[in-house]
Amino acid sequence: MGGHPFDDAFAVMKSMQAELNQLKYDVQEERHLRAKEVGELQREVRHLRSQLEQALMDLSVANERVTNALTSETSLRGRALEMLRTEVADAIKRASEVEHLKTVQATQFGKLAAELKLERSERQAAQTTLDAMLNAEVQTRTEEGAGHAKDMAQFRRQWEATVMQDRELFALLVKDVQAAGDLLAGNVAKETNPRLSADVQSVTTAAPNSPDNMQLLDVGSRPCSSP
């Protein structure tokens, strides 16, 4: 006696069930992998964000320190200038009040005027140096701020590229699932139509390495992202 007439169909169903189970397993593995990658990306984003916040805090502290130093120096220079003005006014007042000491005071006043001129020149030079230092500091901070902004823009572009790549990969996975569903539907159709199944089997047997058959095998062996 020959085999049961449904043995071949039962074998095909078992093979399809095994392929379906393998596809489900591959989908689950892919989900775990994507979830792990997303978690790593989120951790990296949080780390970069904390570094950026720390850099901004450091920059704010440095700017506040420079501002305080500038305020203190300006206050000191203002008091010194006020004292100098007071001394000059007092010297002029005494020179006008003490007329009989003109000759003696003329020499002393000339000396004092020279000292005041020298002091003023020194203070102007110091002020010029301070202005140059402040301008250099402002330029440095501006360049650092531009660098931080550039780094932030680069980070945003990388993040957007990563998100776009993830979306493209997800779209590919969806296409693979659809292709697997189409392949599965094609196998079911072959079971319901023995003549079509025999024709497909004969074509596959006659040309196993043809582009169409290789494409079918390639689509069936791809991992997919959802059942």
TrEMBL record:
Amino acid composition bias (Polar residues), ranges on this chain: 203-213
Keywords: Coiled coil
Protein name stated in the entry: Uncharacterized protein
Organism domain of life: Eukaryota
Source organism: Zooxanthella nutricula
Residue ranges, annotated region (Disordered): 203-227
Chain segments annotated as coiled-coil in the UniProt record: 13-101
